[in-house]
Design goal:
alpha+beta; elongated; two-stranded parallel ribbon; four-stranded antiparallel sheet
Length: 389
């Protein structure tokens, strides 16, 4: 075993800016196979996972003669130091915390590459395969086995020092290290995350129905199912509910890495300007963030939904413009839905406006959305009748 090298790596990791590091064997994660297959069979997978199950479970499938896995964690902030206020006529959305600052994939890769360069100076013939999030291995499984923390009932890795507000990455290598001890589960009887999850996505054993997770729903590109629209409130990317209620996260707010410091104008963007933002301006404002990976369309859809959830009357003129002029059917249909949500009373002109747009639509889903919006507008009570009650 390379105990001396391991100790050197631990020291170097701290100097590089890695908050936690752990070592485990490259043994298979085959104990997870049945669980993952069951999740897939039930339709709980999102499609964002690595597609080849064997490669997720068996390090030898993706690396020649692996001996160890080095797992790392970087802590990120949980609170804005200078949050922007919500103003009635200038409502703001919110990005979940994992998208604050520079895209964490970039930060983790940079840290891991620096760590690999250090190890190569000590072991020049060694080989490495780093991965973050979109790699083959399951980050939380590797981190748990490497002793960084335990997997909570919300499916996230929970560390003693930083709670679950950590980014994870791992490096497979052909160097053999003494493995660290896994951390025993610390959830006990607590089910706060399960109870707090609005769509009941958490299954109670660390697994979740990924397609019901609000974070997943904010990242899809088509229409968001109606049952989730109210539940996202004003969050236009991701979801932090199961983290915010976790007892291990109370009082945790790690401002360690300057690259992770959020720009309030980016993570709390004004919603109305987002509806018609150009590709150039979108890239300039959001391009550095992890939450921009799916492009502007899902975020614009979510911004429309957030304005509806705010019942923002001031957004109606712009939503009408989007419904009539946007080239994307899903955006037009979501705008029509939002108009019907926001408009309080019966309005003949608005009904005619939506009906006129409906007559031009050819996309089946969009026709359905606009028909429902039109029906909802027609069912609004007339203000005079309200006064007569």
């Amino acid at each position: 075993m390379n105990q001396v090298l391991k100790e050197k790596i631990i020291v170097a990791a701290k100097e590089i800016g890695i908050d936690k590091i752990g070592f485990t064997t490259a043994e298979p994660f085959d104990h997870l196979k049945e669980s993952i297959e069951e999740q897939h069979a039930k339709g709980h997978s999102t499609g964002f996972e690595h597609p080849v199950l064997e490669e997720r479970l068996y390090p030898e499938k993706i690396f020649h003669k692996p001996k160890s896995i080095i797992s790392i964690a970087l802590a990120y902030p949980s609170r804005l130091r200078n949050p922007l206020p919500q103003e009635r006529e200038n409502r703001r959305g919110l990005f979940a915390r994992a998208s604050w600052g520079i895209d964490y994939h970039t930060i983790l890769r940079e840290r891991m590459n620096r760590l690999i360069e250090f190890i190569k100076q000590e072991a020049s013939t060694a080989n490495f395969k780093p991965m973050v999030d979109t790699g083959e291995l399951i980050d939380v499984a590797a981190a748990q086995r490497a002793g960084l923390g335990f997997i909570g009932k919300n499916g996230l890795l929970i560390t003693k020092e930083y709670g679950s507000f950590v980014y994870l990455g791992e490096i497979i290598t052909d160097i053999e290290f003494e493995p660290d001890e896994p951390v025993p589960n610390g959830c006990g009887d607590c089910e706060r995350c399960i109870t707090a999850c609005p769509p009941s996505a958490l299954l109670g054993d660390g697994r979740l129905n990924g397609k019901r997770c609000l974070s997943y729903q904010t990242q899809t590109k088509g229409y968001m199912p109606e049952e989730f629209r109210r539940q996202i409130t004003h969050v236009i990317y991701g979801c932090d509910i199961c983290q915010l209620v976790c007892p291990y996260n109370q009082g945790i707010d790690s401002h360690i890495h300057p690259e992770m410091e959020p720009n309030p104008e980016s993570v709390q963007p004004l919603l109305k300007p987002l509806l018609t933002i150009s590709n150039k301006d979108f890239k300039q404002q959001f391009g550095h963030m992890a939450g921009a990976w799916r492009g502007k369309k899902p975020l614009q859809r979510n911004a429309i939904i957030a304005l509806a959830n705010f019942r923002d009357q001031t957004a109606l003129p712009q939503l009408i413009e989007v419904m009539e002029r946007d080239t994307r059917p899903m955006i037009r249909g979501t705008a029509a839905w939002a108009i019907a949500q926001i408009q309080r009373y019966y309005n003949e002109a608005l009904i005619d406006c939506v009906a006129d747009q409906l007559s031009k639509e050819t996309d089946e889903e969009t026709i359905g959305e606009m028909q429902k919006a039109l029906l909802a507008l027609k069912e609004k009570r007339h203000p005079r009748r309200m006064n007569d009650d």
